[in-house]
Each structure stands twice: as structure tokens, then as C-alpha cells.
Amino acid sequence: MAGRRVLPTLGVAALAGASYYLYSAGGNPKVAEKKFEHDLASASAKVKSDLPGRGKEAQKQGEEWAKQAGTKLDHAVDDARAKLRETDAKLGAKMAEADKSIEHMKAESIAKAKELRKDTDKKIDEFDETVIRKTKEAKSGISSWFGFGK
To answer: Is pLDDT larger for residue 144 or for residue 132?
Structure first.
């Protein structure tokens, strides 16, 4: 509701101000515009002269604020660098731990592969021996059929 009333109120105020300057200029819009600009410049100069800390004080205050901002920025940069170094150290430790773990797993895998190969070779040798033994038995059985005996 308040938003609906603000715009018309501002419009009425602007119309009243324009009417005042037009009336005081005797109906001449150019003169009314010049008078409005003069009054606006006068008001601006008065406000500027009444501001505390003009000139040197404002410059000193600005320099102090800049110095404080610079100090805060330096602290922030130093903190960020310290955190980056800390993170880098943690990352290095984790990478070293991962490398160690990988080497351990590699060594275990190689040992298991060697053991598996050894077991496989043993099973193959046993199979070969069984095949040879059974072949000899079969040969002797077939030879005896034809009278070649053992």
C-alpha cells in the first residue's frame, strides 16, 4: 500500500517544485531552469562546506583506511599462503602413504603370483606324471594282448 502512495507523492512534489521555479521566473522556462541550477549549486556548495573532515582530514582518514585495508589484505594473503603450505604438506604425506601402500600391494601381488605359479607348476608336474604312468600301464596292457609281454 505504501508503495502505491510514494510515486504519486513524488510526482506531486516534482510538479510543485517545477511550478515554483516557473512562477518565480515569470513563466519563462529558460530562466526557471537557470534559477533551479543556481539553487542546486548553492545547496551543494553549502552541504560540502558543512561536511566535517573536509580537505586534509578527509585525506588523512582515507590514508588510514587504506593502510588498515592493506594490513588486512596482507594478513589474508599470509593466512592463505600458510594454509596452502599446510595443505601441500598434508597432500605430500598422503601421497607418500599412498605410494607406500601401492608398493606393499605390488609386493603382495607378486608374491601371490609366484606362489600361484609354483602351485600350478606342481599340479602340471603331477598331471604329467599321472599321464606318463597311465600311458605305461596302458602300453603294457596292449602289449600283453599281442604276446609281447612286459
So the answer is: 132
Q: Is 138 exposed, middle or buried (0-12, 13-18, 19+ CB in 10 A)?
A: exposed
Among 62, 58, 80, smallest CA distance to 70 is for 62
CA dihedral sign, ordered 12, 17, 20, 23: negative
Which residue has better confidence, 29 or 110? 110
The 3-state DSSP class for residue 55 equals: coil
Phi then psi dihedrals of residue 53, to 5 deg: 75, 30
| Cell output for 97 | 602413504
Q: Name the grid cell of 51.
A: 561536511
Radius of gyration of the chain (CA): 51
Q: Please name which of 15, 48, 12, 20 lies closest in space to residue 36, comparing C-alpha atoms.
A: 20
Residue bearing cell 588523512: 60
User: How many helical (H) and strand (E) elements, i.e. helices and strands, does the chain have?
Assistant: 3, 0
